[in-house]
Design a protein that fits this description.
Strand order of the largest sheet: 3-2-1-4-5
Shape: elongated
Structural class: alpha/beta
Strand content: 5-15%
CATH topology of the largest domain: Nucleotidyltransferase, domain 5
CATH architecture of the largest domain: 2-Layer Sandwich
Number of strands: 5
CATH superfamily of the largest domain: Ribonuclease H-like superfamily/Ribonuclease H
Length: about 375
């Protein structure tokens, strides 16, 4: 059987309503037959142009042509694929997938891990993606990666050896005109985090936050990295001849912590805590409407507890931060926090009372 335009057109009219997929293949072969008649033969370049015009690969065009020449429309017609039909996702599993997506914005890979490890439910990533697409829960495009001169991947195995701290401003979370600043502390090795909100930011709030971190952290902190904001350093506002010591430096020295400042304008070096900010946006801030700062701190406390106890992470082998810390504790590799509070922490009672008055909340 040869490729003849007239015959192919008659077959297109015959199967126009019955099999759109077969018609699409016949139209591609008509395009190829026209190229053969026009050039009295066809080159590899002609075939590639036909394939591009019909949005198929060159290999597919060869396969369709070979099938038609051997058996006509019967051989060219699409056949049902072999194997088991896909099992639809229904019931409790479907409900849970929707909740994971709407509440936390998780993708198929993270949803699959939590279903398998927390609920003993095995679902493929492709099946989860297909389900999300059918329910209209996809569509968020990946941000294009920004060029950076810092391309080295840092790996830290011991909790507390490298931590990062930063402040995120949330101008629209609380009712106007209330201000809200979230202090965020993240450990590099375990991804353990501690967060607290204040109505301002500066040395006083930093001192209170670091005392709370030292009291809550289940490991000893050896290094803390921050940017050059006024809440962490006086480096760019104090007199060079008479430098003032910042509250952050004082509390770090009192507890044996090395305070490191990143170079100005290089926020990518704070990638760990910046990513934590973004995850908080996706998993928490978009779905809460606290009325007061005290309410927000209660929500943050519950979120941190869930984040450390239940949120599984691919970088940790799909275990939670607390599980990671427990494994290090069993191996004797977890540096213990100070058994007794230092003088710096003990001296915080009066400052905490001031905060309670300002915020109208209990510590």
């Amino acid at each position: 059987m040869d490729l003849k335009v007239a015959v192919l057109r008659r077959e297109v009219k015959l199967f126009w309503k019955e099999s759109p997929r077969l018609v699409r293949r016949l139209l591609a072969l008509i395009d190829l037959a026209k190229a053969i008649e026009r050039h009295k033969g066809v080159t590899e370049l002609d075939r590639e142009q036909v394939a591009v015009r019909n949005e198929i690969s060159l290999r597919t065009l060869y396969r369709w042509e070979s099938a038609y020449l051997k058996g006509g429309c019967e051989a060219l017609a699409p056949r049902s694929s072999s194997g088991r039909p896909p099992k639809p996702i229904r019931g409790w599993t479907a409900k849970r997938i929707r909740e994971y997506r709407k509440l936390y914005g998780w993708g198929p890979e993270v949803i699959q891990a939590h279903l398998k490890l927390d609920h003993k439910i095995s679902v493929t990533e492709h099946a989860i993606y297909t389900f999300l697409k059918a329910k209209g829960l996809t569509g968020r495009k990946k941000a294009s990666p920004k060029k950076s001169k810092h391309t080295k991947t840092v790996r830290v195995e011991t909790p507390g050896q490298h931590t990062q701290i930063d402040v995120k401003h949330l101008p629209r979370l609380l009712p106007n005109p209330k201000k809200c600043y979230v202090y965020n502390f993240v450990d590099h090795a375990s991804k353990w985090a501690y967060k607290r909100a204040y109505d301002s930011y500066g040395p006083f709030e930093t001192r209170d936050f670091m005392r709370r971190v030292l009291a809550a952290a289940p490991f000893s902190i050896a290094r803390s990295q921050s940017d050059n904001g006024i809440e962490f350093t006086y480096k760019f506002v104090t007199n060079a001849d008479q430098p003032r010591k910042h509250a952050m430096d004082e509390i770090c020295e009192a507890n044996g912590i090395r305070h490191v400042l990143i170079p100005p304008g290089e926020k990518e070096l704070q990638g760990l805590v910046e990513r934590s900010h973004r995850q908080d946006d996706e998993e928490l801030y978009h779905r809460i409407k606290p009325k007061t700062l005290a309410d927000f701190n209660q929500v943050l406390e519950a979120h941190c507890r869930w984040r450390n106890e239940s949120r599984r992470r691919k970088s940790l082998g799909w275990i939670s931060s607390n599980q990671f810390l427990a494994e290090h504790q069993k191996r004797g590799q977890l540096p213990s926090p100070p058994s007794q509070p230092t003088a710096e922490i003990q001296a915080s009672d009066s400052d905490t009372e001031k905060l309670e008055v300002n915020f109208g909340r209990a510590a």
